[in-house]
Design a protein that fits this description.
The protein has 416 residues and is an alpha+beta fold. The protein has helices at residues 29-34, 36-44, 62-68, 80-84, 91-98, 105-116, 121-140, 150-155, 157-167, 174-185, 197-220, 226-237, 242-255, 258-272, 275-283, 288-298, 330-333, 369-384, and strands spanning 6-7, 17-18, 26-27, 49-52, 57-59, 74-75, 147-149, 305-309, 313-315, 318-320, 325-328, 390-391, 399-400, 407-408, 412-415. Strand 4 (49-52) and strand 5 form a beta hairpin. Bound molecules: protoporphyrin IX containing FE (HEM). Protoporphyrin IX containing FE binds next to helix 13, helix 14 and helix 18.
């Protein structure tokens, strides 16, 4: 161990981290983005976190990520990041100031409660047949007889059309709704700069106004659907301001588009690169759920969870001062060998925690987890069950980003 003190933190006593030997290094965006898995693996055993050039602290180890996602010394970021980028008013600030995604404590509970029941596992199981029809419909469409664009024709359509169906959006509005959803959801990625702000603000303004109109319509003419129930419960409890009521709807659209699109491309790419596992799932569809979970572990669609430090944190002698931004790297944690032995292997049968860490933990744990699972499983079922075999000639899965929602490149899949 080169004289380093061993720190055993695992249930597996033979595996240890080396104790920190130096200050956690500062790395630039470019370095972090170039080979994030390799970089995390290199540092994870010697330092608990990396500092990013913008001052954020990237926590690398499974047990630290688990702890600080819900530790009282941290809280969810509210409008701080927008303010830090000089955005102090306008639609993005309105969104952040009223959304469950960017709030804490009682305010967060009140906002989340209004939606929570509508996205429970049992309610989402009722949506499953519709998602299955949708996914199979895309695969079997005449327009895709030769093949299709995995990301834009298939993966993007599933969350957008599913959310449109849940919200009762008419067929003719789906293209508009889809385009707005993807333009606004960019705010949850790290891949936007000052030049993108006017476009994101405009898309947010339009999506908010679209959701307001939808709610007003259900108020006038209630139907037997999710949105009418939501409007009725918001009106009956009067717990939410009108801005809050609409922003929870926008938050669901925001949380549920880019994430699932990326995850569908990733899981399909990973599995097409592993024909033996693809065949095993074709023969036994009970392997679909483990394949989805293992894909999310190996190459997560969301790489990190942000938190703000509200009280100084000491991790193995390294101080992270109050006011710092933490990026809890689920991407690194999900390959921490102390929690996932042989982390680089795609293992359908590995032991996994009951609640997948990719969805976070604590009060902000993903509200859409049940929906995401239904969408990811049904997307895979449709592809696996297709009568013809799929291939992605001479292409590889390309996923970029070391934090936030990750970006995926297009893959053209062809039928053999
Ligand atoms: C693979 C797909 C998905 C992944 C990996 C994912 C991941 C996450 C994570 C890590 C969080 C916690 C953020 C935090 O603690 O700061 C979260 C929150 C959230 N997600 Fe997802 N998500 C996915 C799909 C969805 C879907 C389909 C929806 C749509 C309903 C959704 C809606 C939300 C919402 C509204 C929140 C905020 C919850 C709160 O702050 O209380 N997500 N998601």
């Amino acid at each position: 161990m080169n004289g380093k003190k061993a720190v055993s933190l695992s249930k597996e006593p033979h595996l240890t981290y080396s104790s920190p030997v130096a200050s956690p290094p500062v790395l630039g965006f470019r370095e972090l983005n170039s080979q994030p898995h390799e970089t995390f693996a290199e540092y994870r055993s010697v330092v608990p976190f990396l500092k990013r050039e913008d001052g954020a602290h990237l926590l690398l180890r499974g047990h630290d990520v688990q702890r600080f996602v819900k530790d009282p010394k941290t809280k969810q970021l509210e409008t701080e990041l927008l303010y830090a980028r000089g955005i102090t008013a306008g639609p993005l600030v309105e969104l952040a100031a009223n959304s469950m995604l960017f709030s804490n404590g009682e305010v967060h509970r009140r906002r989340r409660q209004a939606m929570a029941k509508c996205f429970s596992f049992s309610v989402m199981e009722r949506v499953r047949p519709e998602v299955r029809r949708l996914a199979q419909g895309i695969i079997n469409s005449d327009a895709h007889a030769e093949g299709f664009k995995l990301r834009d024709d298939f993966a993007a359509a599933i969350p957008a059309v599913t959310l449109a169906a849940i919200l009762g959006i008419s067929q003719s509005d789906i293209p508009l709704f889809t385009s707005l959803a993807y333009r606004v959801s960019k705010v949850l990625t790290t891949s936007w700069g000052a030049e993108d702000v006017p476009e994101m603000e405009e898309a947010t303004r339009q999506l908010v106004s679209y959701c307001e109109d939808l709610m007003a319509e259900r108020r006038r003419k209630p139907q037997d659907d999710f949105l009418s129930q939501y409007v009725a419960s918001v009106d009956a409890n009067a717990d939410l301001s009108p801005a809050e009521a609409v922003m929870q709807l926008v938050s669901v659209v925001l949380g549920g588009t880019d994430t699932t699109r990326a995850a569908i491309v990733i899981q399909t790419g990973l599995l097409l690169e592993r024909p033996d596992i693809w065949s095993a799932i074709q023969e036994n569809d009970s392997l679909i759920a483990p394949a989805v979970a293992e894909s999310l572990r190996l190459e997560p669609a969301v790489a990190s969870i942000p938190r703000l430090v509200v009280e100084d944190i000491d991790i193995e002698g390294h101080m992270i001062p109050r006011g710092s931004v933490l990026l809890l790297s689920t991407m690194s944690a999900l390959r921490d060998p102390l929690q996932f032995p042989h982390p680089g292997e795609f293992d359908l049968h590995r032991e996994r925690p009951r609640w997948h860490p990719v969805y976070g933990d604590g009060e902000h744990r993903c509200l859409g987890q049940a929906l995401a699972q239904v969408e990811l499983e049904e997307a895979l079922r449709a592809l696996i069950g297709s009568r013809r075999s799929l291939r992605m000639d001479n292409q590889t899965l390309r996923v970029s980003g070391h934090a936030g929602i990750r970006q995926v490149e297009e893959i053209i899949v062809q039928f053999a």
